[in-house]
């Protein structure tokens, strides 16, 4: 059986730590490095629901994409039961469940978040969107009208809904940026993309894209990143066949749309 440290080392071999942004927090963030793992749960986020699922399954470690502690959106200053983050961490510690997070290093690595997203949308001739490795660009097998393309994105990623600024031209060349990559729309434009698929897009981003004649699609943070969880699960299972590795069944898109 593999230790948590060995699982971390394998995941770093797939998504090297050096690929993470300077502000990021990746690796084995909770747990005993020497502990032997028998069951692993893979999820985009380490939510309370995911932790409860791990407890019910008897998992020793959760592998997440988004860091569970000391990240920009949830810096840890206390470990108190009367805070959401404190309760989560205390629950993990009480049940001796480790957490390994692979975040921006998994975004940029070959075969990571953005490659998986590009492949899911059927892009061909996939290449880098930016010098730092975030995002991918490729072409569709055949041209699609904007509305048909948007519908395909929604169905393929199983999104609850998408927001988009349309364009009048057929979609052939497409850029993608899993998660909050709205700032990379300019890279897609510079490369001559007809469409850019990402998440967390602002009003003026849509306006700028429409003025430039590019279809900008916000397919949601969860739907554009979650497909990589299956890849992580498969890689772990192949490398460590003695482990039971599952993808979370409780974690899902939390954003709903009322139309």
Domains (count): 2
Structural class: alpha/beta
Characterize the biggest β-sheet: 6 strands, mixed
List low-pLDDT spans.
none
Describe the structure in your own words.
Strand 8 (about 170-175), helix 7 and strand 9 form a beta-alpha-beta unit. The protein has helices spanning about 5-15, 50-55, 85-95, 105-110, 115-120, 145-155, 185-190, 205-210, 220-225, 230-240; strands spanning about 25-30, 40-45, 60-65, 100, 125-130, 135-145, 165, 170-175, 195-200, 215-220, 245. The chain has 2 domains: about 5-105, Udp-n-acetylmuramoylalanyl-d-glutamate--2,6- Diaminopimelate Ligase, Chain: A, domain 1 (3-Layer(aba) Sandwich); about 110-225, Udp-n-acetylmuramoylalanyl-d-glutamate--2,6- Diaminopimelate Ligase, Chain: A, domain 1, CATH 3.40.1390.30. With about 260 residues, it is of the alpha/beta class. It has 10 helices and 11 strands.
Provide key terms for this protein.
single chain, 259 residues, alpha/beta, Udp-n-acetylmuramoylalanyl-d-glutamate--2,6- Diaminopimelate Ligase, Chain: A, domain 1, 2 domains, six-stranded mixed β-sheet, five-stranded mixed β-sheet, 35% helix, 20% strand
Structure summarized in a few sentences:
This protein is 35% helix and 20% strand. The protein is α/β, with parallel strands linked by helices and 259 residues long. It folds into two domains: 4-105, Udp-n-acetylmuramoylalanyl-d-glutamate--2,6- Diaminopimelate Ligase, Chain: A, domain 1 (3-Layer(aba) Sandwich), CATH 3.40.1390.30; 110-224, NIF3 (NGG1p interacting factor 3)-like (Udp-n-acetylmuramoylalanyl-d-glutamate--2,6- Diaminopimelate Ligase, Chain: A, domain 1, 3-Layer(aba) Sandwich).
């Amino acid at each position: 059986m593999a230790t948590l440290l060995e699982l971390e080392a394998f995941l770093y071999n797939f998504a090297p730590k050096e690929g993470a942004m300077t502000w990021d927090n990746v690796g084995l963030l909770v747990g005993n490095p020497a502990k032997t793992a028998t069951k692993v749960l893979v999820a985009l986020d380490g939510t309370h629901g995911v932790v409860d699922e791990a407890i019910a399954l008897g998992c020793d470690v959760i592998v997440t994409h988004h860091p569970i502690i000391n990240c920009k959106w949830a810096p840890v200053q206390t470990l108190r039961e009367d805070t959401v983050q404190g309760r989560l961490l205390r629950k993990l510690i009480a049940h001796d469940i480790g957490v390994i997070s692979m975040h921006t290093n998994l975004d940029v690595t070959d075969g990571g978040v953005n490659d998986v997203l590009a492949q899911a949308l059927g892009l061909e001739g996939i290449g880098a969107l930016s010098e730092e490795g975030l995002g991918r660009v490729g072409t569709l097998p055949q041209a699609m009208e904007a509305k048909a393309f948007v519908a395909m994105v929604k169905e393929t990623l199983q999104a609850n809904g998408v927001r988009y600024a349309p364009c009048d031209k057929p979609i052939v060349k497409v850029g993608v940026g899993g998660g909050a990559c709205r700032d990379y729309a300019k890279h897609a434009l510079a490369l001559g993309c007809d469409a850019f698929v990402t998440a967390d897009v602002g009003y003026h981003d849509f306006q700028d894209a429409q003025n430039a004649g590019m279809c900008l699609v916000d397919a949601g943070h969860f739907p554009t990143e979650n497909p990589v969880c299956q890849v992580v699960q498969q890689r772990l299972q192949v490398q460590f066949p003695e482990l039971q590795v599952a993808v979370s069944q409780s974690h899902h898109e939390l954003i709903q749309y009322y139309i």
